[in-house]
Structures are given as structure tokens and as C-alpha cells.
Amino acid sequence: MGDAANEKAPKTPVVKSWFKGLKAEFKKIIWPDKKSLGKQTVAVIVITAVLSVIIALLDAVVKFGINVII
User: Fold this and answer.
1) C-alpha 51: how far from its chain's center?
2) Which segments of the chain have a pLDDT < 70?
3) Intra-chain end-to-end CA distance of the chain, in Å
4) Can you tell me the distance from the alpha carbon of 31 to that of 54, in angstroms, rounded to the nearest whole number?
5) CA dist., res. 68 & res. 6, Å (int)
6) What angle is formed at CA 42 by the lines to CA 39 and CA 44, rounded to 5 degrees?
7) pTM of the predicted model as reported, rounded to 2 decimal places
8) Predicted pLDDT of residue 16
9) What's the pLDDT score for residue 11?
10) H-state helical runs in 1-70
11) Is 40 within 8 Å of 32 (Cβ atoms)?
């Protein structure tokens, strides 16, 4: 139970290794081109709008149902 057991090794090699791994992983990423990015962005916006309308309608129906019950 000496002090040597409680001391930690310097973390510099671990941090360096982690950043090397991070850099290697970023090199593997295949970024989308502008055309694909535009299509995906439009798809996300349209789906978000449609789902928000559906949720709003469901909310209105539930509120109406609760008001009828009460």
C-alpha cells in the first residue's frame, strides 16, 4: 500500500495514441457530395414537417376526446 501504487503513469502516450486513432477514423469517413446532401436535407425537412402535422393532429384528437369525457 505504498505511494507508488497510487501514482498514475503520465497520460501523454495514451492521449497521443487516442488522437492518432481519431485521425485514422476521420480519414475513413466518406463525406456526401452536394447533390446527395441536398436531397437528404430536403428529405429530413419534409419528414419533420409531415410528422409534426401528424403529431399535432393526434394531440388535437386526444384533447377533444378528453374534453368529451370530462
Assistant:
1) 19
2) 1-12
3) 69
4) 32
5) 68
6) 110
7) 0.58
8) 85
9) 63
10) 3-6, 12-28, 34-69
11) yes
